[in-house]
Specification:
two-stranded antiparallel sheet, 6 helices, 2 strands, 156 residues, single chain
Amino acid sequence: MNRTALKWLLAISLSLNAGMIVAVAVNRLGDPHRQASVQSEHVSLPDYLQLSADQHRRWSEIEEAFLKDIAGNWREIRAHREDLVRQVFSGTPDRSVIDAEQSKIAALQDSQQRRVITQLLAERELLDQSQRDKLMKLLLSRYTQEATEEEMLHRH
């Protein structure tokens, strides 16, 4: 496999993982202020944000549909990623098939990113300013801490 194809696969995977980080962060994350040994623990995001009973009820209503939707999107992306990798490593890779799969993945990732943004905006509306700040800091801290699977695979 040539370096260009590997770079394309890495770029696709990195884009995909950015959406995954947000989805995971929205679902359940640990406290970013805890020590590294405790960071693998996960707490309920509503508990971490200290939602009131009404906020928790509303959060649950919007979260359930979001998680179901995003899981379906991930299944589709995963299937196209598998098809893409199989094509790249086939005996005679067909660039038109590779490009088509890459386009399908990009469209699904764009759709997923829009879903995540819509969800974050909905969550923002039910949070008070202190809770918004807490969620924003948590998300931003996770982005700097998380390595993608591809980064972990390609480290020397």
